[in-house]
Amino acid sequence: MRNPLQTVLDFAVARSGEAEALFKTWASEVVGAEAQALLAELAATERGRTEMLSRMSPEELTGTADETVEVAELLVNVRAPRRVTLGVAIDLAIRRKDVTAALYERVAELGGEACSFFRAMADEDRRAARALGAIAERLDEKGKTASGR
Q1: Separation CA 111–CA 94 (nearest Å)
Q2: What is the pTM of this model?
Q3: For 18-77, how does the pLDDT look when each residue is reduced to its tens digit (9 = 90+)?
Q4: CA-based nearest residue to 93, from 8, 28, 13, 20
Q5: How far does CA 119 lie from the centroid of its chain?
């Protein structure tokens, strides 16, 4: 049977690589310097994560068999189409960050050498989700103002 923690690491590497590509694409397509800068920063963060996670082994994490299977059950894909509006892109990015924050927090709870790394990634994802939410709120306010609501 495959080690569930290796499955988690493989999932995290794949999602980070996918997120980097999406954030890069979205950053080049959105209007607004603030949104472009945040998406470019998120892409760079995901590149660093991919590199770190790809070098990590399951032995750097601990936990019982039941705990690791429970963590593997948190592997949730948030699919994103290539062409979306900025509002949809931000919503998808927030959902991705929420999912990965929950996963990384649970992995951190297992303990081991990598626990602080996963806790930091969870915190980073929560901060990114809040920053993305603030941009979404400003866009929503601009939309309401422009439509005269």
Answers
A1: 26
A2: 0.71
A3: 888 888 887 887 777 887 888 889 889 989 988 988 888 887 776 544 444 455 444 445
A4: 20
A5: 13
pLDDT in tens, 105-142: 888 888 888 889 889 999 999 999 998 898 888 877 77
| Distance in angstroms (rounded) separating the CA atoms of residues 1 and 77 | 22
**What is the rounded distance in angstroms from the CA atom of residue 107 to the CA atom of residue 5?**
9
Q: How does 33-46 read in b/e, with b if 16+ C-beta sit within 10 Å?
A: eebeebbeebbebb
Following CA atoms 72, 11, 92, 125 in sequence, which dihedral angle do they give, to the nearest 10 degrees?
A: 80
The structure tokens listed for 25 are: 């694409």
- Amino acid (one-letter) located at 96: R
Domains by residue range for the chain, with CATH: 4-146 (1.20.1260.10)
- What CA–CA distance (Å, rounded) separates 87 from 136? 6
Q: Exposed, middle or buried, 73 (CB in 10 Å: 0-12/13-18/19+)?
A: exposed
Mention every residue, 6+ apart, whose C-beta is less than 8 A from residue 112: 60, 61, 62, 63
CA dihedral 108, 135, 47, 74 (to 10 degrees): 40
